[in-house]
Amino acid sequence: MNRRGWLLLLLLLLPMQVKAAGVGSIRLRLKDDSVPVPGGTVTLYEITQWGCGGDWSGSELAAHAAEHQIPGISREVDPMGEVLFEGLEMGTYLLVQTVPPEGYYPMEPFTVGLPLTIHGETTADIIAEPKMKRLPPDQQLPQTGQLHWPVWLTGGIGIVLMTVGMGLRRKE
Questions:
Q1: Burial class (CB in 10 A: 0-12, 13-18, 19+), 77
Q2: Residue 67, helix vs strand vs coil
Q3: Do 101 and 37 contact (CB within 8 A), yes or no?
Q4: Does the predicted model carry a pTM greater than 0.85?
């Protein structure tokens, strides 16, 4: 094989990641303590052009999106409790859990700006780990009456005693 062939083979075997300028990603890791929380759906809204002002909370923005039926990008949460939104242009985004995982409340809606600067470091690839809160376990009503077997036993003893009592009364 000539030099050009080896170079082509080497280029094909090397994993390369090409990223366009001004493009970022948001990865959500849904966990309850350190346990992944799979299931549910998360929707991403690009809100840079909404003109809502900076005073709106994530919940108010989510209500605005639902009320005005604003289209978003929805993704299913994978078995590892993760959701990835790639190829995002720089701007402000709202993340809403439109379908919560079984046994959990939906995560609180929140906004993220791309790029994000923390402690002097700027990144366009964000990893967010929102807190997940379990629903309370189904509460069962306390046992307030008798179990079924003592009812039959008590009823049977009652009938026997009534029969004995009636028999004694006849003898008098």
A1: buried
A2: helix
A3: yes
A4: no
